[in-house]
Amino acid sequence: MNKKAGSFFWNFKQLSTLIPTSRTMRLYSLGFCRPKIVCAKWKLRSLLNDLGNRKQSSIRYLFQDAFIFKSREDSCQAKGISTVRVPTVHRLLCPRRIFFDAKYSVVCVDIPDNGLKKLSFHHEASSEDVLIKERKATPLSSRKLSEECNSLSDVLDTFSKAPTFPSSNYFSAMWTIAKRMSDDQRRFEKQLMFNHPAFNQLCEQLLREAKILYFDHLLFSLHALVKLGVPQNTLLVQTLLRTIQTRISTWLLPSDPCTAPAAAHRILVDQHVWKIKSIFTLQTVMKYIGQDTPIALKKKLEMKALKELDRFSLLNSQHMFEVLAAMNYRSVVLLNECSAKVIDNIHGCPFKILNNILRSCKDLRYRNLKLFEGIADYVHTTFDIWTLKQVLFLLILFENLGFRPIGLMNLLMKKVVEEPGSLNTKSIVSILHVYSSLNHSCQSQDKEFLDVMAAALTGCLHHISSQNLLNAVYSFCMMNYFPLAPVNQLLQDDVISELLASGKMEKNVHRLHILDTCLKLDDTAYHKALDLALPQPPSVPSCPNTKVAEVLSRLLGGEGYFSKNVQLPHNYHIDFEIRMDTKRSQVLPFSDADITCATNIQRLVAVLCVPRSSYCLYSSHPRGILAMKMRHLNLMGFHVILVNNWEMDNLEMENAVAFLKTNIYSVEALPTVNANCQST
């Protein structure tokens, strides 16, 4: 701390020597809009005389891009900052050699004993010149530089001939050019860049401009420097990084959203939101404004984004998903418009963008079938350019969203069968999870696919963890497939004990009970010999659909003809149970005498009230848990009827009665039932 404090006061003292004693400077922070640069005339004679009598040291210009300077002596002011023209005054600079002090975790500057290096700025200045003036030279954009130059050295040559502000454009242009090169050519060009005489000058200029660059220029410069291979422990990279961190922590990331600074930041955004002209700036503000921002300010930012929608580039549309997710605000209109632009320009979209879009849709609970189908079809069409890891990441996100990309999943099954050597433990567990959760199967290659996955899992048994083994076998059980070697290893006492002692005990107990049920009910070799001593899973509270109960009561003739909240063996629960004859033409009452007389002719009907999440997205295809439950209920002698909660709530009573009547009674018995209903 003493070193840091001493360094701060030393720099402050040297800075204070540059300011005349009769002048004071006030700094006022402005908003987000870039102020217009105006000229101001200062008298330099007294300043030069004062500077000539003082020893100079290294000077750090602390001017920001949005400050107002006021002089009490001269009633003049200048908004914004342009190029600072310095008279011929020697700056004393030491060679910067960077190393990190592990004890204090600060950047130290090593000053050699052989003296200090002098660096002069050769700018002519008269007493009528100004310190702040508008730059007349037109800056070159990074895009124009990257189009006109063919190599990194060409960019540096352009800089050495006529340097312009900001210098960040040169680094961005060099990285854009480097991306177009092959690996060998890029390596050679980087070596030429580091040896170029103008490279150090460009770095020095960027170092001086760090405090006055706009935030997007800072980010692009830091990104380009790192990508071009500039060491991260250099003064330039560390200065840019610290400047970016300071601005983010000061303006965009308050530690506590309830503090006064956070409230002040939001007030400032609220006042200046309509003045923001850059889409990038708008999205940055939206991204870092915070999830606890009042809904009124979120709506205001949404309206601003909708107003600028015509100016959105493809990158802006792609980035908006992540922005809204960071703000925790689901703007369906904005998401729909951005989705349409993403779908129209899906070809060439990189993996990172697709991954961020799907993650954001999951966080925002945004379901757009056309968007998901567009991404899945694009990956399916360009399947050969993607790695197995990338395809698997996208499939995991699709599974989280409940979307089942049939074509892509069939293609992955084919690749797994053809190239089983590309699988590792993590990919095996992930693939089994996705396919079992979405209840996906392809009749032509389903058996071969499961055999290959079982063989791959068997090959990993010597190093697989107990948790991964349970997850893989659980997925196999959901797909009604039971590989012998993995199941035998999972049923070892030490493996079961480890699973029950882990931090995921409740989840593991639930899955072990399902494994026990599958091995007893499904046609396996374990249904007679299996005996697992497991703790009982917690009971799940049930809340039957009251409208379905009312419809059944009206259809069957009273509550005595069906039972609610029925608990079955193997920890299964059904909402309603109905007993019928074997022809499904007559409903039997729930009395002991009737049950005894009709034991040989009754048929059990299970009515399950299921939510929308039990199906794949916008389809009637049941997901893995529901499909397994239906399979087991059929093995227990039940005829399963699925009632969709959201559809039943929207039906009138007469339509609801007709719907259940069609599903409960057989086709042959329906005319008789209709006659009985009319007579009653």
UniProtKB/TrEMBL annotation:
Gene Ontology terms describing biological process: mitochondrial RNA processing; regulation of mitochondrial mRNA stability
GO cellular component: mitochondrial matrix; ribonucleoprotein granule
Residues spanning the membrane: none
Subcellular location: Mitochondrion
Domain RAP: 605-662
Pfam families: FAST_1, FAST_2, RAP
InterPro entries noted in UniProt: FAST_2, FAST_kinase, FAST_Leu-rich, RAP
An MF annotation (GO) of this entry: RNA binding
Coiled coil: none
Keyword entries, A-Z: Mitochondrion
Listed name of the protein: RAP domain-containing protein
